[in-house]
Amino acid sequence: MNVRDEYTRSLWMDVSVADAPALSRTVGVDVVVIGSGIAGLSVAYELACHGRSVAVLDRGGIGSGMTARTTAHLATALDDGYGELVRVRGPDCARHYYQSVEAAIDRAEAIQRDEHIDCDFRRVDGYWVQAPETPASELDEELDCCRKLGIPVEDCAEPTVFHSGGVVRSLRFSRQARLHPTRYLAGLAGALQRRGAQLYGDTCVESIRQERGDMIVTTASGYEVHAADVVVATNSPVNVQVAIHTKQAPYRTYALAAKIPAGALEDALYWDTLDPYHYVRLQPLSAEEDLVIIGGEDHKSGEADDGAQRLAALERWARERLPALREVTHRWSGQVLEPSDFVGFIGRSPGEEHLFIVSGDSGQGITNGLVAGMLIADLVMTGASPWEDVYAPARKIQKNIGEFISENITPLKNFAEYLTASEIAGVEHLRPGEGRLVRSGLKKIAACRDRNGHLHLHSASCTHLGCVVHWNALEQCWDCPCHGSQFAPDGTALNGPAVSPLGDIEKPANLEAAE
């Protein structure tokens, strides 16, 4: 199981990326990649192209994790703005970052062409649009910064999607791109299999260790993969307890897809200047219609349980600006990990030589995953990459300390919840689809009744670092507000950093009678 087993389904989930069995024997390869989203399969592909033998493991189906919950913008424009990146990490870092994401989009274009992947890849412009509620100075500062860095950007009047009347200013970034993410992953998986790579789904990794010079990955079924190098590309790393998780924060984001007449909206990427911001793109559907994908309404994971209302707000926002919008076909949510200094964590895991990680996707997970493919392949093959320092997972957060501290207050607030909760008898009144935190003596219990009416009682302590999980009614899962772990109603871990399920709680006899 993984996040595909949460309740909503995205536009991309109808594609089966690859048929892959569970690992049923111990194997040996040059490199084992844990995680089969855009980062994992990109890393595996680049290494296979260099002649390395590769095995890919995923706790769910291949390509069915968080990549299938994205909106798939390929962008050189930075979510938080290049001005902020320069302020926090300096102009050299910003230039190298731009070079890396520009190269990543070029690489995706080359791969889909060379491997004949039908994934609707197209180069489009990207517009960073001034929302009426925000000052023009925000665009002025970004335009000035980009020009100083040598990043191509134009000051222009914005297409009509972000306002209901009049002309609104925007910055235009050329040569961005969009694609169908799971079709692209299916193409990568096929290319990997043609090169002899081994793909294993429904294979949960429990531990990674080094022994006599070998890296050994052990799965929940007891089988092992022996390799020279290991890459952890699980969205949130499962191999470290603290080193990365204190430098990034999990956020839920929401998206919907709706039909629109072909030609009613320019095929482009759009973002506005609000915080949280809205983001929009098209996906081809037929000669007569496109799908327009609208995202936004983000919040810290586990700190709100109003997903249905947020999706409704997205639809209202879209219909106010796109009068030609037709029926909504899909509604879903996903999770992004926001790094404190605006750049993801890609490279050697802190203190390790042969263990690599990919995390901190922010809102640019597809682009960052493509960067990871090239960067980690360089580190494995040659020991160095021109972008190594930009993305180094071991780096310290030297500026933007205020955000670093504010995000790390969440665990402190969370642990205080152990002192509050209703009594366990209250679970008798849970309706199908509802969840609640309750107390039995000194125990904090995550209680929910699934949509089939079955009551589930588990420890409310996340199995990563013990934070109290919160119910997510939209996705029918438990979310950890501290570091982004997610759990099914039956307690199974769906998303890292947690690997183990929520602890079992014995059902009190009085509840048995109530059932």
Alpha carbon gyration radius:
23 Å
Q: How much helicity do the residues have?
A: 10-25%
SS elements, strand count: 27
Mean pLDDT: 93
Separate helix tally:
11
The computed structural class is alpha+beta
Bin the strand percentage.
25-35%
Overall 3D form: globular
Query: Which stretches are poorly predicted, pLDDT < 50 over at least 5 residues?
Result: none
How many strands, what sense, and barrel or not for the largest sheet?
Answer: 9 strands, mixed
Separation, N- and C-terminal Cα atoms: 28 Å
Structure explained in plain terms:
- With 515 residues, the chain is an alpha+beta fold.
- Helix content is 25%, strand content 29%.
- The chain has eleven helices and 27 strands.
- It has helices spanning 38-49, 82-89, 91-114, 137-149, 181-194, 307-321, 365-382, 388-391, 401-408, 410-415, 509-514, and strands at residues 27-28, 31-34, 54-57, 73-74, 122-129, 154-157, 169-178, 198-200, 205-211, 214-219, 224-227, 229-232, 248-261, 268-272, 279-284, 289-300, 328-339, 345-348, 355-359, 422-423, 434-440, 443-449, 455-459, 470-472, 477-479, 486-487, 493-495.
- The strands form five sheets. Strands 4, 5, 6, 7, 13, 14, 15, 16 and 17 form a nine-stranded mixed beta sheet that branches. The protein has a six-stranded mixed beta sheet with strand order 8-3-2-12-19-18, with helices on one face. Strands 1-11-10-9 form a four-stranded mixed beta sheet, with no helix packed on it.
- Helix 1 (38-49) packs parallel to helix 7 and helix 3 crosses helix 7.
- The chain is globular, with a radius of gyration of 23 Å.
- It starts with 26 loop residues before the first strand and ends with a helix.
